[in-house]
Each structure stands twice: as C-alpha cells, then as structure tokens.
Specification:
- The protein has helices at about 65-80, 95-100, 115-120, 160-170, 190-195, 215-225, 245-260, 270-280, 285, 290-305, and strands at about 20-25, 40, 50, 55-60, 85-90, 130, 135-140, 175-180, 200-205, 235-240, 265-270, 305.
- With about 300 residues, it is of the alpha/beta class.
- The protein has a single domain (about 25-305), classed as 3-Layer(aba) Sandwich (Rossmann fold), CATH 3.40.50.300.
- The strands form three sheets. Strands 6-7-5-8-4-9-10-11 form an eight-stranded mixed β-sheet, sandwiched between helices. The chain has a two-stranded parallel sheet with strand order 1-2. Strands 3-12 form a two-stranded parallel sheet.
- Helix 1 crosses helix 10 (about 290-305).
- The longest helix is centred in the first third of the chain and has 14 residues, at about 65-80.
- About 45% of the residues are buried.
- The structure holds adenosine-5'-diphosphate and magnesium ion.
- Adenosine-5'-diphosphate binds next to helix 1, strand 10, strand 11 and helix 8.
- InterPro entries: AAA_dom (IPR025669), DNA_Partitioning_ATPase (IPR050678), P-loop_NTPase (IPR027417).
Amino acid sequence: MTALQPQTVPVPVLDVDLEFLDIVTEWDVDTTFHHWRPGIVVPPTFRPAISPRVIALANQKGGVGKTITALELAMAYAARGLRVRLIDADPQKAALSAWLKETCYPADAKDRRTLRDVFFGEATLRETTYPTVYQGLYLVPSDPSLGDVENATPQQVFSPESLLRDALRADTEDWDITIIDSGPNLGKLTVAALVASDDVAIAVQDGGLEVVGTGSVVTTIKTVRKRMNPSLQVRAVFFTDFKKDSLHRRIGREMNKAFPDALIVPCRESTQAGWASLGKRPLRMHTPNEKPTLDYDRAADLLVAPKQKVS
Ligand SMILES: Nc1ncnc2c1ncn2[C@@H]1O[C@H](COP(=O)(O)OP(=O)(O)O)[C@@H](O)[C@H]1O
Ligand SMILES: [Mg+2]
C-alpha cells in the first residue's frame, strides 16, 4: 500500500497570496467592520512554554474543531522536526484514530493495542504508541471500547482520573510534544486528559460562548486545577472555521475577555478541511499551503518553543 511509505512533513511555503494573520494584543471591535483585519491575539505577558509539553484539546461540545486542531498542531510540530505523540482519548468511531487509521503502523488496526488497554492495565503507554507514516508523528489509538472506562468499576480501572498522568510519567522515552484529543463530554476520559496535561487548548466555532458558564469545560478545568492539577492553564483558544464577519469578531472578543492570558487563534475557513478529513489525511498533506495550516503553524510557534539541545 503506497500510503504506508514514510513521508516528511512540509512546512508551508510562504506565498504572498496567503496573507499571514497579524499579531495583536486584542481584537478591536470599534473600527468599522470593513477596515478590520482579524489577527492572532497574543496577550502582552504571554511567552512560549519550553518543550516537553503536554497539551489537551477540550470542549464539552462536538463538531467544534478539537480533532482537526489536535492533528494540525501535531503536524506543525512534526514539520519542525519535533517528536510528537498524539493520544486519542475520544472513543467515538469518527475520532482521530479513524482519520489516521490508514497511515499508522502496523497497517491493520486489528493488530494495534489501544488507549483502552492502558486504562484497563493491559498495556503500557509505550506499548500502545505507534509510528505513523508522517515523520516524527506517533499515535496512541482509541476505539469505541475506550468508552468502557466511563462505567468501569475500581476493580477494573483504578483511579481513572489520574491514570493517564501516571502512565505519561512512567514513560521514560523522550517526547517533545504530547497532544491529547478528547471527546465531546466532561466524563472521566476528559478529566484524565486534563489531569495529565500542562496546558489546555479550547476549540470553538461560532457557538463559542458555550465554553464558559455552569456545566461548561471551564468549570471542569477549574475543578481539576483545584483538586488535582494546580498548574493547568488555558493557553489557547482555537476559533476554527473562522470567517471574517461581525459575529465571529464579537465572539473572538468575548473569548479574549474570558481568557485574557490565552492566545486567541482564528483558524480561517477552508473547504479543504472537510476534504482532508474525508480523504483521511492531515490538511497540510492533503492540500499544501491552506490558510488554516499557516494559522496552526504560527500558533504552534507561539505556544511552545523547542528546548535548545546542548551540542
Ligand atoms: N478551518 C476550517 N475551515 C472549515 N471547516 C473546518 C475548519 N476547521 C474545522 N472545520 C470543520 O469542523 C468540523 C468539526 O471538526 P472536528 O475537528 O471533527 O471537531 P470535534 O473534534 O470538536 O468534534 C469538521 O467538519 C471540520 O471539517
Ligand atoms: Mg473530535
């Protein structure tokens, strides 16, 4: 199968037509809409974290761009020569593992262990980490049986909330970036992802405001911070399928108010995003130089700087 040939991950080629987003400290909602240009909001105090770093994607809602953001960020770091592990903590059939299914070794998914085996104590995280055809990108797959974690007894899965964190700590291999994609709920798997992470990145679309308020992912993040992971931070909000219109401008501004210390990243709309997912390839491999790829690349550089290797 030709899909299983190793492939290097390209950094997009700069092209004058693919205008970069400006870097701004907040979105201006007062200038007339016609003159307004969206930009990536970088708060004045914001500094890139130094790798290694564990980043969870979260939002209690589905269809808001968590999975595409997890994958494209991971590809951006792989393109920069970093060693990246993607952990699929979403049991849904259409999750990240389905997207990468045909690009992972061993070729037959039946021969792979999954994150479920880690939770049930049947495998280590290292044993469930598989290389993909994309140089530098590794996947810990899931399948629908991962959902068993939500209803498991303590005899089956002991302390699921801290299990992923402990599994990451137990792995002595060097990873520059670990990205955990979570499902559209706030159950044990999402909490486990938040407990295991240094940073949270929230993905939103034009319903944006659902992430703040009672019962939202922000409430869960606050509880996780208080009880289990005091250094957890919301470091970025990815506004996916972003269109330049007044609704998106307004919601971006509200996100900036709700998360004043986080990057606000508009990931510009591209019909190719849907095609890439149907074609089961990351966007930058499906269509080179799409606008969202540039947006993810810039955000990746702002979020994490690679640790300088001592030569
Ligand atoms: N930049 C973009 N332009 C157009 N569509 C996008 C963009 N980013 C995401 N989408 C679309 O949003 C939908 C949801 O994305 P997905 O990552 O699967 O969300 P989630 O993981 O939160 O359920 C997909 O159909 C995807 O193609
Ligand atoms: Mg998803």
